[in-house]
């Protein structure tokens, strides 16, 4: 599988570290209750099909990326810088 890093171009996925669902960008408020934090930290969906994932370009530019990929075919549909996704509120 290849990932098109917006900063470095197309790279082998071994340069990246998978960090989980891009839901991690939607952290609860620091003052949120323990139930909300428990759900955020421990409960994840495991869908078959298109998902948004957080990847770290560990052996490259050290950018955090949001990769939209099909978990069945492993086809990568899009790659965005996580900071841009967070700023846009996507």
Biggest sheet, spatial arrangement of strands: 3-4-5-6
How far apart the termini lie comes to 25 Å
| Unreliable spans | none
Shape annotation: globular
Total DSSP helices: 2
What helical percentage do the residues reach? 10-25%
Strands, total number? 6
What does the main sheet amount to? 4 strands, antiparallel
Order of helices and strands: EEEHEEEH
Strand content: 35-45%
Secondary-structure-based class equals: alpha+beta
> pLDDT average, as an integer?
91
- What does the radius of gyration come to? 14 Å
Describe this structure in words.
The protein has 90 residues and is an alpha+beta fold. Helices cover 18% and strands 37% of the residues. The protein is built from 2 helices and 6 strands. The strands form 2 sheets. A 4-stranded antiparallel beta sheet has the order 3-4-5-6. The chain has a two-stranded antiparallel sheet with strand order 1-2. The chain starts with a strand and ends with a helix. The model has no long low-confidence stretch (mean pLDDT 91).
List the helices and strands and how they pair.
Layout: E1 2-5, E2 9-12, E3 17-21, H1 34-42, E4 50-56, E5 64-70, E6 76-81, H2 82-88
Antiparallel strand pairs: 1-2, 3-4, 4-5, 5-6
